[in-house]
Write a structure and sequence with these properties.
Elements (H helix, E strand, L loop, with lengths): L1 H24 L7 H9 L3 H7 L5 H9 L4 H13 L7 H13 L3 H13 L7 H13 L3 H12 L8 H9 L6 H15 L4 H7 L8
Helix pairs in contact: 4-5, 5-6, 6-7, 7-8, 8-9, 9-10, 9-11, 10-11, 10-12
């Protein structure tokens, strides 16, 4: 009860700070979840923070650190990773991304997978990229499914999962023709690693596996 009361007190305190800051500046509103998702998917989230003249830093930090909102944990973590409007602190930034991933954020999972794929801020480990990508792909994130199939096609992960990864991406719905063409190319690369009968089974809309 004491910890809950402390949390609520801090939440109210930071909430008042956020409202006061917005009232004073009057120019920039905190991003809605929909806006933030669109900014993340278009890779414009850090540019947007800069364009807003870093006036939302306290709001973003409060929503990430106190309210524990996964999308804002993603944004705050990335600001710390890249030193945008704050002093760079990658160890803290990666830890915040991991917390967001543990809460089920596909955006955080995919970003961590990308860091491990490229070896940026962390030791390159593409098998760990698979581990971060799998849950997001299983939950239906198309970009995660594309990255998973890419990793499988490059020989990372377990061959026993190739069929499921192929099935997920093959039966996905794509946002545009460019994404669909990229997915088709990735599927062709992965298909080379599987028997024809398994590829045909993976293409079925419903897949039953032992």
């Amino acid at each position: 009860m004491l910890r809950l009361s402390l949390f609520l007190t801090l939440t109210l305190l930071f909430g008042s700070t956020i409202q006061s800051a917005n009232a004073v500046s009057g120019a920039y509103d905190i991003y809605s979840d929909e806006q933030l998702i669109n900014l993340i998917r278009s890779n414009q989230y850090l540019q947007r923070v800069k364009l807003d003249e870093c006036q939302l830093v306290q709001d973003i930090e409060a929503r990430a650190e106190v309210l524990q909102q996964p999308l804002y944990q993603f944004l705050w973590g990335e600001m710390l990773n890249h030193g945008v409007c704050v002093k760079a602190h990658p160890s803290r930034g990666i830890a915040i991304l991991q917390t967001a991933a543990e809460q089920g954020s596909a955006e955080a999972m995919l970003k961590l997978a990308d860091y491990y794929y490229r070896g940026q801020l962390v030791v390159k480990d593409r098998h760990r990229s698979v581990q971060y990508t799998l849950p997001a792909a299983a939950n239906g994130d198309v970009n995660a499914r594309m990255m998973l199939v890419k990793l499988f096609a490059e020989g990372y992960g377990s061959p026993k999962d190739y069929e499921m990864g192929y099935h997920w991406l093959y039966n996905s719905i794509f946002d545009d023709e460019s994404q669909q063409k990229k997915a088709t190319s990735l599927l062709q690369q992965l298909a080379v690693k599987m028997p024809t009968s398994i590829v045909e089974r993976a293409q079925q809309q419903q897949l039953y596996m032992q």
